[in-house]
Amino acid sequence: MEWNAETLQFLSQCFLNTLSPYPEPRRAAESRLSEASDRPNYGLAVLRLVAEPSVDEPIRQAAAVNFKNHLRSRWSSSEEEPNAQPQSLAPDEKEQIKSRIVSLMLSSAPRIQSQLSEALGVIGKHDFPRRWPALLPELRSSLDKAGEGSDYATVNGVLSTVNSIFKNFRHQYDTKDVAIDLKYCIDNFAEALLMIFKRTAGLIDNIGVSGGQAAILRPLVESQRLCCRIFYSLNFLVLPECFEDHMGEWMGEFQKYLTVKFSVLEDGGGDGLALVDELRAAVCENISLYAERYEEEFRGYLSGFVETVWNLLVSVSASSGRDRLTVTAITFLTTVSTSVHHTLFSGDDILQQICERIVIPNVMLRDEDEELFEMNYVEFIRRDMEGSDLDTRRRIACELLKGIGSNYRERVTQIVSSQIQNSLALFSENPTANWKHKDCAIYLVVSLASRRAGGTSISTDLVDVESFFGAVIVPELRNQDVNGFPMLKAGALKFFTMFRDQISKPIAMALIPDVVRFLGSDSNVVHSYAASCIEKLLLVKDEGGKARYIAADISPFLLVLMTNLFGALGKPESEENPYVMKCIMRVLGVADISREVASPCITGLTSVLNKVCENPKTPTFNHYLFEAVAVLVRRSCEKDPSLISAFEASLFPSLEMILARDVTEFFPYAFQLLAQLVELHSPPISQNYMQIFEILLSPDSWKKSGNVPALVRLLQAFLQKAPHELNQEGRLAQVLGIFNKLVSSPSTDEQGFYVLNTIIENLGYDVIAPYMVHIWASLFSRLQNKRTVKFVKSFLIFMSLFLVKHGSQNLVDSMNTVQPNIFLVILEQFWIPNLRMITGSIELKLTSVASTRLICECQALLDPSVGTLWGKMLDSIVTLLSKPEQDRVEEEPDVPDFADNEGYGATFVHLYNAGKKAEDPLKDIRDPKQFLMASLANLSALSPGRYPLVISGNLDPTNQTALLQLCSSYNVAIV
Questions:
Q1: 20 to each of 16, 26, 29, how far by Cα in Å?
Q2: 876 C-beta neighbours (distance < 10 Å), count
Q3: Through-space distance between the first and last CA atoms of the chain, rounded to whole angstroms
């Protein structure tokens, strides 16, 4: 893409249209930019547009965002990632971008600067420092110059860029290469970092934290925050000598920023307080790092920081909207509490104060919590129930208690238990006004519970679970007002869910109808927690792994349960509630599904499916939806086959809509459900299915790699249920074309064998014989050119299946048609040495029986001239049957091959409930060892004295011993 007036006009108009509020011009512009992005020098042209002062800033900002995203997908070099999609930038374009971006970033307006800084970080992740040695000197020179002139727009631009580059050290292991890169960064930037940090500290001191103008102080505080983040990155892996030597200077400023008040910023409203708190939070993360990793060197500063952070927390805990500072400060105290310096918290009065002045204020619900509960239930549950809430005040406060309790367990338990009782007493005095105190008590019990080693059961020393459940939780669950005090109801349901193992079955069964009732709550959190509670109860196992709750337990209220679950999906904001859909899936997997239940369920599920097809946006919900459909079809049709036609009538329009509307995200699911329906269907296959079969045979369907496993699954179903239709209108040739493409690539060869094996199992030899030469030629070509361990094992399984289905003679003759005597070559070079690598009970039986039949029935191996080959084959069979898997299998990792993937690459997600059942092709043979010994005894009886000599000359001594033991076990003799 050449840079000229025409390019400038084209890109400017496109980026202007991407800002349009109307979808048509916006989508058209995005499409044109996507096409243009494949042209050489596109990234460089966009960067030049960003630098063009005659273009309006919103357009240049949109271009900067596009430039950043373009680099994210295309910067990684083709040498590193040869199969990276889309195509990487050319080396010349990269060098030109690198030569321009730093100066442009530093001279740009703040919003554009932030985008270019991130783009520079993307380049740095791949090229810095080894392929971009000029970057750090250029940044340091710019920093020194800007610092001398007090140009803090440029200073912060440089620091922001350095921060985005150096933060990679926080996510790497301390390897030799990383150590070299880190040393380079420290040698070339640590001195400049300290210099600008001290210079900025002096400017702040001269202004005075209480006086001065906010506009002057703001960039200085931001500069110190960025210095702290860079400090964290450079100290993350090791304590560099230059930082240890200047520790006093750093720590003195850190202490100051935790104690002084920047009145002009903090009292001025707006984001001034947030900016200062971000600086303090960065300081807390730095001192936490030192307390945890560099304990000895940091020892002299520790007690002073503990006192400072303590005092800071007491004031912050009473404030709203200061979560990040609170969390990082408590994290520091938690780190100290689990270290050798835990004695700083040993006094009874200190423990009491921690509980009263830090923990309880942060565990008590705040207005922000209530707002989140009402306005964003997904985020509330993510923080509250799913264990990913370490970034919240409530959880981190409890983590502090756990940390202190690791050394002072009894005292912490006593203090917290007393606090729980006080909170419940306050609630009893005035339940309406003091409901948050009860919530606090429940939260403390739940959050401080611990998981028993080696199990899923939860325990607590704070309360007696059964009595607490009965006195505190049950009244909330029994409350008939499902919408009153919803946060209390949610806490009660969470407790029930958490301690479900300890709640006896009779008590739980009496309460399940109440939980079902809460599915009707208007609160998204409450009906989500009710659904989760039921779903988790159905997973409870008693000793011996037996399910505690079975179909008979939920039958009395099954219809109302399903009605309420589907009703919950009708609530605002819960149309795609993953907790509700997961519960539907779990109930259908446990319940006894009658026609009366199945009919409304399939109607409800297909209605939901049709809606989500319009705009798929919640992957977890969608997965549970398809699993629910699959389990409903499987369990109800197994019980009542007459339901199949009703399910087909309901599901087919939805599945056809997915294919017709090109809802690519759902293709893998749709193909798996169709496979399930085909397998349940009795021949002959209806015309509806045959139309799907034609889509299945189209080469376009196979271009998206995410579809392949599901397509293979569906193709296998057709091969099993419609073998006659397969051999009409050239379809078999088309299927073998699909096999040929799949088997040619290491990423899909296993899927290719699934297709081939199903053909071999379901079609007569007279049908497949004309194609065998081409099949063998494809397999031999892969064997010669791209052999992998996985391919050889699949190849061996295929040959074994072919033999047991169509006989050893057809196997030998068809292979030798490709090349004379190729069978014996394959046997010697691949079959015999790799037989020991076979795993899986069905596969082991199949290959051992096929190998036994070879040496006992195949004329090519019964010739005395190949006696050595016969003996080696028997040696491999005995190894396979007598040695445990871990003693004979040495897995060699195969190098993955990235298949070409055209268009949208939907990830394949396996549907557990629509899975293909593993079928045993040798059901009449129960014991492969017995089959081997009986076959050998019969064979040796025909030629007495011949085979003992072959055995003694070719079998490993341990295998000879194993063979004698087998003779004894099965009471046979090899004569």
A1: 7, 6, 10
A2: 25
A3: 82
Q: Are 733 and 749 in contact (CB under 8 A)?
A: no
Helix runs in 640-771, H state only: 644-660, 667-680, 687-697, 708-721, 723-726, 731-743, 749-762, 765-768
Report how far residue 97's alpha carbon sits from residue 90's, in angstroms, rounded to the nearest whole number: 11
Tell if the pTM clears 0.85, that is, is over it.
no
CB under 8 Å to 211, separation ≥6 — which residues?
264
Burial of 144 (0-12, 13-18, 19+ CB in 10 A): middle
Looking at the DSSP assignment, which residues form a beta bridge with residue 451?
A: 458
Q: What is the DSSP code string of 139-185?
A: HHHHHHHHHHTT-HHHHHHHHHHHHHHHGGGGGS---HHHHHHHHHH
Give the integer Cα–Cα distance in Å for 336 and 299.
11
Q: What is the mean pLDDT of the chain?
A: 90
CA distance 711 to 697: 10
Q: Are 230 and 240 in contact (CB under 8 A)?
A: no
CB 553 within 8 A of CB 591: no
* Rounded-to-integer distance, Cα 765 and Cα 756, Å: 13
The partner residues of 459 in beta bridges, in order of sequence, read 450
Strand, helix or coil at 547?
strand
C-beta pairs of 647-650 under 8 Å, 24+ apart in sequence: 647/602, 647/677, 648/677, 648/681, 648/688, 650/602, 650/603, 650/606
Structure confidence by residue, pLDDT tens digits, 683-720? 777 777 877 888 888 888 888 888 899 999 999 998 88
Bridge partners for 684 per DSSP: none
Instruction: Please give the Cα distance from 541 to 455 (Å, whole number).
Output: 11
Question: DSSP character for 541?
Answer: B
Residues 6+ apart with CB under 8 A from 600: 562, 563, 566
Range list of H helices, 820-882: 822-826, 832-834, 841-857, 859-862, 867-882
Instruction: Give me the residues paired with residue 450 across strands.
Output: 459
- Alpha carbons 833 and 873: distance in angstroms, whole number: 9
Q: pLDDT tens digits, residue range 200-220?
A: 999 998 887 555 688 899 999
Bond preceding residue 928 cis, omega within 30 of 0: no
Calpha distance 511→532 (Å, rounded) = 15
Cα 303 vs. chain centroid, distance in angstroms? 41
Interval 645-682: pLDDT, tens: 889 899 989 998 998 888 888 999 999 999 999 888 87
The DSSP line for 600-626 is HHHHHHHHHHHHHHHS---HHHHHHHH
The span from the CA of 4 to the CA of 84, in Å, is 30
The CA distance from 365 to 600, in Å, is: 41
CA angle 102, 108, 111 (to 5 degrees): 110
